Structure formats: C-alpha cells, structure tokens
Amino acid sequence: MTKSLPSTAGLLIAAVALTQAATSIPAASASAADTPAHTQIQQALDQAVADGASGMVAEVRDPRGRWFGSAGVADTRTGRKRQPHERFRIGSATKPFTATVVLQLVGEGKLSLDDTVDKWLPGLVKGNNNDGGTITIRHLLNHTSGIFNYGNDQEEFAKFSGPAWLEHRYDTYTPEQLVRIGLRNPRSFAAPGDGFVYSNTGYILAGMIVEKVTGKTLAGEISRRIVRPLGLTGTYLPGLETKIRGPHPRHYSTLFAAETDAKVYDVTDQSATTGWAAGGMVSTIGDLHRFTSALLRGKLLPDAQQREMFTMVKTGIKMPDGTWKDTWIPDTTYGTGVFSWELSCGVKVWGIGGAITGGFSFAMGTRDAKRMIATNMNIDRYGRYNSLDMVKTVIQAEFCPSGSPTRSN
C-alpha cells in the first residue's frame, strides 16, 4: 500500500488501487435473510473483522425486502455492537451530493458544465500551468481537470499521516486554502480532458462555485435540495464541529501504517474542513441506500442532467508510449460523483463510495437500483489486509456468490 494519499482529503482512498429511490423498504422475511448470498455476506463481514477491521456492517435491499448484517464492534473499549441507525463519516461519498447540487443548478439554467472555472472564480486557478480559463466545471466533476489533488501534497501528508495526525486532527482549512495547496504542485497531465486523475481539489472548486452561484452555503443547498426531500434524517455536512452528532461508532485508523500489527488509533473526533465538498459529510447506512437509489433511478435530476451524471470516463491516462495506466480503482469508470465497478465475476455495479481517516463507506447496486448493498467499516487499514479489498469482498458476496474470488492481493 503506497503512502502517497494522506488522510486529510475525505477521499475514496485510491492508494490500494494505485499499487496493486426514496421508497419504503419492508423488513426482510426469514427466507430472504437466510439465502446463501446473505450467508456469504455475513461470512465476509466476519472475515473482515478477523483480518483486522474493528467493525463492519452491510445492508441489502432488493425486491424480497431488506437484510442487515454486522460483525465486530462500534467501540473497542466497551464492546458495543454496530447498529443500523448509526451515523458515520462517509468521505468521498460526499462527492455525489456536491455533483447533484451542481447538476440541479445546470438544470435550472443557472450555470453550465461548459462554464470555465474563471467565469465563477476569476483568477483563483493559476500557476504550475493551471489555467482556470480552460478548465470547465465538467472537468472538475469527472476528475479530468488535471489539477493536483491537494491531499497528495507532501507537506500536508507529513502532517496527516502517522502520529502527526493526532497533533493536527483539529486543524481547520478554508476551501481557498485547500485549492492553493493543490495548485502549488505540478499538474497531473498537460491539458484538461486528456486523462483521469482523482482530484479532491476539483470538488472543492465545485463547492465554491455552488456557493458563488447561489449566494448560500453548500451545506444549506445539500440540505434543501437533497437531504430534506429524500428524508435523510442522519445526513449532514458539518461545519467547524469536530464531533459526530447522534449515535455513532468510534472511528479507528492505522494512520497509513501498512503493517498487519500496526497500532490502531481512535480518530472519531476530527476536523471536517479538510474534506468539505470533496469528503466531509456524515450519513447512515439507510440514508446511503435512499440517496444512491434516487441517483440511479433518476429521481433527483432532469433527464439531460441525469445523462450527464452517468456519462462515464475511463479511470486512467494514456502514457507517452501509448500504454494505458490505471490511476484509480481498476475496472471502474467514473461519471460525475458516481462510478461503475466491474467485479471479478464480470458483474458491473454502480453507485458511490468513500473513505476517510476512520472508515470506508460504499453503496452499490444494479443500474436500475432494484438490488442494492450499502456497507461501512469503522476503520481504514492498508497493507495485506486492506479496507478496499474487504469492501470488495462484501460487495462480491452479494453480486458474485458461490465461489467468486474473495480477496485480491
């Protein structure tokens, strides 16, 4: 596991990959809960805990009903078990919330995805061959801008990995500061649109554009346009608060240490300003289901903007010698905040995902959202037993049951 991606960014942590409807759902019947697929999901949850996860939950929703499974604990000190109603930090699963607000504004005629960054934030994006006059909002949302990911800045990484994180966990950043951190580094590729490199900086800029266009806070727009209409009772974008509201598991991290026996730290309380529009939100398993289902079913966007959200690009770049290099999770494509993932058995799932210091959260399903799984683990781990592989194992237990590969090395 490379240590090139620090914990500050609320990212869907891609370092592993770089190196190796708002409807009421009935409770599941006993027969649905006892299907072999759900048995395999529970086994995958149990194995994740055996491999070092503090706790992990998964919830399946399909035409048969709803199934919830858990393993491990919410609190290693007290032994408290994980529960379906808990709130947790969702990292880059924040991005589709930001993207949805932007696309709604497009549908209302208040901006265009072809607008340049300079149109709304004149003079902000410049230096190191960055030009806000050539980078569009579309480039920001699908990670094809080439702007350096501020989370990979070496100076910031030194503060937010290892025990140094404990000294900086409450540091606050303005969006402008995060953008400047990204811009003090070289671009990821020459021209906007020439490749895909995951960049939280682009989503910070998108959040700033939302506030410029609306004259209101991003948190308020997410609440007004998404949270309240969908009834997402456990979902919010924190401001300066460092604690999670309401019932929640403790969040744990090895702070990017890759050793199997790496020390684990309680990282529950932390600044959300390091992620903001790119990765600062809090949610629940049920809310992630409801939001992702609404995205997949087209319940939040006009038809034209729905097509934009699911206009996918390959997650990599073409090298000078003509070869292809994956720069994110292999076998994925990316739209605007959403992505597809082809699993080891050939099944393709669609949805959202994110990681932050203290956990991984995903909600994935069929393109029509008729079959969905959402999962959260309240720890981020690296090395041989890493969190991304554990998540993939749980997802594959739902969509690739009976003999599908359970872990990639």
Automatic annotation (TrEMBL):
List, alphabetically, the InterPro entries matched: AmpC-like (IPR050491), Beta-lactam-related (IPR001466), Beta-lactam/transpept-like (IPR012338)
For this UniProt entry, which residues form the secretion signal? 1-21
UniProt superkingdom: Bacteria
Q: Cite the Beta-lactamase-related domain residue spans from the record.
A: 42-379
**Entry keywords, A to Z:** Signal
Keyword Zinc found:
no
Please give one Pfam family short name: Beta-lactamase
Protein name (database record): Alkaline D-peptidase
Q: Output the lineage of the source organism.
A: Bacteria, Bacillati, Actinomycetota, Actinomycetes, Streptosporangiales
